[in-house]
Amino acid sequence: MSPNEFDRLVAAAYARIPARFRKRLKNVALLVEPEPSAAQLGRVGPASTLLGLYEGRPLTTRSVFEPFSMPDRITIFQGPHERLARTPAALRRMVEETVWHEVAHYFGMTEEQVRAAERRHREKWDRPPGRSMH
User: Which domain holds residue 85?
Assistant: First the structure.
């Protein structure tokens, strides 16, 4: 997939984030890179596959009294997504999940909280229609 096509996938994934959250994203740069750098991989461990990375100070730890700061960064990595996705539909879904995951970090969710929310989301969408979780 060309870099421009992947950029469009990321933009579409960002647009799918509910407006009530998107409008609260302030001073955040959304970037696409072909691969994570050695420094970025070093933050998560060399054995990890890094699909995306939030770099900044989560919204929940900020103060209204803070001076201006450089933008937070959300970086989505094209290469790892393409290597893991088996179909174009799987690639689109994986990019959507990665963008959501990194935005959740901006709002202050820890890795454990984000993964728990992802599990709940998958359970909700993967169960047969008409069945509730009790």
Answer: 3-126
**Alpha-carbon distances of 94 from 31, 34, 120, rounded to whole Å:** 16, 16, 16
Of the candidates 132, 59, 62, the one whose C-alpha atom is nearest the C-alpha of residue 102 is 59
Q: Are 60 and 13 in contact (CB under 8 A)?
A: no
Q: Which CATH number fits the domain that encloses residue 11?
A: 3.30.2010.20
In a domain, 66, yes or no: yes
Which H or E run contains 52? Answer: strand 52-55
Q: How far apart are CA 96 and CA 81, in angstroms?
A: 11
Q: Over the stretch 59-92, which tens digit does the pLDDT of each residue have?
A: 665 556 666 667 889 999 999 999 999 999 999 9
Give the global pTM. 0.79
Domain count, the chain: 1
pLDDT digit string (tens) for 34-65? 999 888 888 776 667 899 998 887 666 555 66
- For residue 90, which phi and psi values (nearest 5 degrees)? -65, -35
User: What is the Cα 77 distance to its own chain's centre?
Assistant: 10
